[in-house]
Amino acid sequence: MPLSLHAVDLAALPTNLARVREEIERIRSAEGVRGPVRIVAVTKGHPVEAVRAAWAAGLADVGENRVQEALAKQDEAAGVPVTWHLIGHLQSNKARHVPGRFGWVHSVDSVKVADALGGALARPGATGPLKVLLQVNVAGETQKTGCDPAAAAEIAEQVAARPGLELMGLMTMAPFTDDAATQRRVFGGLRRLRDQLEQGGLRLPELSMGMSGDYRAAVAEGATIVRLGTVLFGERAP
Question: What pTM does this model have?
Answer without folding.
Answer: 0.94
